[in-house]
Amino acid sequence: MASSMYEDLNLVSLYIKGCLIALGTVASQTAYSVFAFDCPCSAGRNYLYGLAAIGVPALVLFLVGVMMNRSTWDLVSECRLRSCRKLSGAAAFALVGTIVGQAVVAPLTWVVISLLQGKAYTCALSEFTDPRTLEGFPDGQGSEVMARFPCKESVAEELQGFLAPVEQRLKYESQLIGWLLVAGMALMVFLHLCLKRCSSPIGYLQESYWSEYRSSEKTLFHDTAAVHARLLAAQNVRSFFGFVALGKEEEEQLAEQKKLAPICSTNWDRVTGVYLYREKNGLPLYSRLHKWSTYGTDTEKCETGLLKSICRD
After folding, report:
1. What is this structure's pTM?
2. What are the b/e assignments for 229-239, b being 16+ CB within 10 Å?
3. Rounded CA separation 48/216 (Å)
4. For residue range 30-70, what is the model confidence (pLDDT) as tens digits?
5. 214, 290, 297 from 287: Cα distances, Å
6. Fewer CB within 10 A of the terminal residue: the chain, N end or C end?
């Protein structure tokens, strides 16, 4: 029951985070469309401008999402430290899929909202509209004329009656592509979750526990690292000046730690990188830190040959 509640909370947290990212992107896209979007209404330029208005912000948002994902740098560290030799093809695919899936929320929202609004698509594709498909349209009109349709004031008076049909057709195409994109991405997310569940080496309840453990370990590690770094800095400052400006609580913490020492690089490497679920003698190892704690916490063991093989795992 508790495990199920933890899983539900994690799912709700991810859902809320995704919704906040999507809402922020919607607000940004709407503001851009209202205040900044300005179709050049010129053949050859409309297409580039329209595609850039849809694609460039989406690309930037995607790259930012990838860079801000901790799993990205875990994967980079894994390849740097261990040449990714412990990652199977399926595991690598699942990890990359997770990174891309989380990073694609904002850019997908931008693209979908752009398509549903239809301004950028209408600008980009107006010059490619075939005038012969418009009943009663004057002969001899080319792409230069059609490119002016997104700017109503630039259209000749005798062609004003064709503004609505052209805009309606292009908006129909734009919104159809947008909804198809939403349906396609929803299907891909569903299939990814199904494959993830089916290929998991552990049961649903234990996976829920594992997720809760990783979340707790991440929070505690970050908070403790911040305190350790501050106390180590305070110790070094006091060694230099003879005293250090600390609060009462921090002074007590520093007094309890008689001699703080930096953590050796080998230990940092051992707890850094991608981790796949493993068991040893039937007991689960939930993280690299868990494995490090199980197989030795003595700093001096960093340099022994006995643990060098473990350091590279």
Report:
1. 0.72
2. eebbebbeeee
3. 48
4. 777 766 788 888 888 899 999 999 999 999 999 999 999 88
5. 7, 5, 15
6. N
